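2024-03-11 09:14:02 DEBUG pipeline.ingest accepted 1 chain
2024-03-11 09:14:02 DEBUG pipeline.ingest length=338
2024-03-11 09:14:03 DEBUG pipeline.predict start
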Amino acid sequence: MTKNIFFLSLLCLVFFFGKTSLSAQETLTYKTQVLKQPPYLKAGDTVAIVAPSGILKNKAGEIQQAENLLKSWGLHVVVGKHVFSQDNHFAGTDEERCEDFQKAMDDPTISAIWCARGGYGTVRILDKLDFTKFSKNPKWLIGYSDITALHNQFHNEGFESIHAIMSTSLTDNLDDISESVSTFKEAIFGVNLKYTLMGSNYNRVGTVTAPLVGGNLTMLHTMLGSKTSIDTSGKILFIEEIGEYKYHIDRMLQSLKRAGYFDNCAGVLVGDMSKMKKNTTLWGTSIEQLILDALSDYNFPIAFNMPAGHEKDNRAMILGRKVEMTVAKDKTTVIFKD
């Protein structure tokens, strides 16, 4: 009897702790807080273009092009008072950039806030923002890169937001960024988003349904230890980066890992790792293998090749929205749920 109990206990341990990855057929669904969805846009609505980060030097043409694009979709546009202000690195002082952003948040006639560009600067205004009026009339925040800091803040305040192109992402020939523009339009007008990604032998297979969070890896790392850091428990984490050394990527992942960032994570979706720098001492593996090695202690699905980040093909994603992510070696599907 004692021997039978011993072997039964041993089998249970093997079952619970011997599992290293999800099978392609196994689906995990996570229940998390449902975030508030701002109203989708319709013809006649107004979009505010603001610059909460870097300076927009010689960018008047790009902002005009952004206005023209929105107007071609039947939308009205207001441009922040300080969009073209200059304060060293930034598009105006912290107070000026915050003033424009807060005004757009508070104005009930504004339906979306489209960030002009990223760069650096949003972290300097986070603690100045007041969500009191915004909570009564929520609207879409749109942007990527440095805007990740704002996405985190909006998420923690309980609101969905849109990771997508910014005003200065537009090119002279929009055909060059057709997917970026079309998915941006679909996201703000409420068309369901669904992506089929190119496969990768690095993919860790599995299927999971959970909310999508994340953004630029440096900004996620910067938020650690603050009230703007996001809780990734039961969520799929999206990451992208530009202009970093591989050892910098590893260092940030290790820091997030040591902080418990991945302990209860539901999955990881990897976007573009653009313009990676070469160190004099080579890392020795691909960026994909680096990520897999850093996350080797976890068994959630990991998908590569999401076309989002600092490349021309920057597909829109609704952060905070529940998605079904099915990862196989030959392809990955990412379906945003209503």
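2024-03-11 09:14:41 DEBUG pipeline.report DSSP finds nine helices and 14 strands in the chain.
2024-03-11 09:14:41 DEBUG pipeline.predict end
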